[in-house]
Each structure stands twice: as C-alpha cells, then as structure tokens.
Amino acid sequence: MIKLTNVSKRYPSGNLALDNVSLDIDKGEFVFIVGSSGAGKSTLMRLLLREETPTSGRVIVNGRNVGEMKRRDIPYFRRTLGVVFQDFRLIPTMNVYDNVAFALRATNVSNKDIRQRVPYILNLVGLQGKARSMPEQISGGEQQRVALARALVNNPDLILADEPTGNIDPELSYEIVELLTEINKVGTTIVMVTHEHELVAQFDHRIIQIEKGRLVADTGKIGGHNGRK
C-alpha cells in the first residue's frame, strides 16, 4: 500500500529533511510514525499526500508513483485517501453534517447516498446528536471527530492522520486513537504521525521512529491488521 525506496528530500534551503528512507506499509496495518520536532515526520506526510515530491528515490502510495504523478491527477489521487489534520480544518460556516457531506459532494455522490452515508458515519464516531451543530458550538475533541468522519465518509482504504491529537487533551487523544483502532480492525490502513510517545505506548501497533531525517527504529510487521498481533 505504501512503499518508500531510498527516499531523500532536500529543500532549496539546503535542509535535508529525509535521508535515504526505505519502508513498506502493508494493507490493513496500523502504523505510528514518531519522532521529535523537525525529525522529518511532516515531510514524510507531505510526500504521501503528494504535496511534495522526493529529491531522490521512489514513493508509492496505493499503487501510484507520486513523484511521477501529473498535476491534473493529484486531486483524484487524494480522493482515494482519508486525511485527518491536527488543526481540524472544518469549514466554520457549515454545520457538522454539511462538513462531512462536503467530502461526498466534491465527488458528485448523489443526495440519496449522502443522506444515508453521513448519518451512518456520524454515528460511527459518536456524533449522532451533533449533526446540526456549528463547529464553534462543539468541543475540540468533537471537532476532531468531525474531521475523522469527513476522512472516513468516502470509505478510503488508507487514512493518513497528521498529529490528530495535537490540539486535544490526553483523555480525548486516547479516545481518538481507540476509534482509529476500531476502524483499522475492518481492514482500513492507518498511518498516524505523532510526537506523543506516551500515547503510542498505550497501543499495540507498529512503531516507526524517524530522527534527523533517518529511519532509526521499526518494531516491524508480525501479522494481523495492526501488525503486532
């Protein structure tokens, strides 16, 4: 599902953000990518999203070589992914229902399918009573659940979560990762970038550590959906 082969990324400033990184993430795995600030985690996520291209090496996501992807193909590629950001990125003028439905409307899904799919996903993330609430009317943890619902609503095979617990308290952070774990159990691949080592330690998932642009540790794949069973 994800394959990096000898990937390096050097920015015009001269900063070497990733240095000869190789890794494989199989379908159905749950993988934490950890490291200190500036380690290269965000650069790796930008490569997976095709916001950046590698200076050298190959990045394959969902069978696509992102470095060779034409600009016109990028929006269609991103629609195959579910993406969750640290800052939620909800549309403040839309209620919870419409924030989630927006992801479907962007791909021309019928109104009938939207009316079926959105309530189902909101129920899945525990927000069935918040559909008509505006973003400013709900808590930070609930806003992150809306962001997760939006990532899930297109039923992606792969979810990329970039510091999804960075703006919520530790108890809610645990709940978000628990929810991602439940989603992973049905076969969805989860890649979560985080610097919260204490949170990661509470779950039995594969851990990849990056420091100074290099992959320095990998707990490996032992089978099962989350790679550690």
TrEMBL record:
<dbReference type="InterPro" id="IPR017871">
    <property type="entry name" value="ABC_transporter-like_CS"/>
</dbReference>
<comment type="similarity">
    <text>Belongs to the ABC transporter superfamily.</text>
</comment>
<dbReference type="InterPro" id="IPR015854">
    <property type="entry name" value="ABC_transpr_LolD-like"/>
</dbReference>
<protein>
    <recommendedName>
        <fullName>Cell division ATP-binding protein FtsE</fullName>
    </recommendedName>
</protein>
<keyword id="KW-0547">Nucleotide-binding</keyword>
<comment type="function">
    <text>Part of the ABC transporter FtsEX involved in cellular division.</text>
</comment>
<keyword id="KW-0131">Cell cycle</keyword>
<dbReference type="InterPro" id="IPR003439">
    <property type="entry name" value="ABC_transporter-like_ATP-bd"/>
</dbReference>
<dbReference type="GO" id="GO:0051301">
    <property type="term" value="P:cell division"/>
</dbReference>
<keyword id="KW-0472">Membrane</keyword>
<keyword id="KW-1003">Cell membrane</keyword>
<keyword id="KW-0132">Cell division</keyword>
<dbReference type="InterPro" id="IPR005286">
    <property type="entry name" value="Cell_div_FtsE"/>
</dbReference>
<comment type="subunit">
    <text>Homodimer. Forms a membrane-associated complex with FtsX.</text>
</comment>
<feature type="domain" description="ABC transporter">
    <location>
        <begin position="2"/>
        <end position="222"/>
    </location>
</feature>
<keyword id="KW-0067">ATP-binding</keyword>
<dbReference type="InterPro" id="IPR003593">
    <property type="entry name" value="AAA+_ATPase"/>
</dbReference>
<dbReference type="GO" id="GO:0005524">
    <property type="term" value="F:ATP binding"/>
</dbReference>
<dbReference type="Pfam" id="PF00005">
    <property type="entry name" value="ABC_tran"/>
</dbReference>
<dbReference type="InterPro" id="IPR027417">
    <property type="entry name" value="P-loop_NTPase"/>
</dbReference>
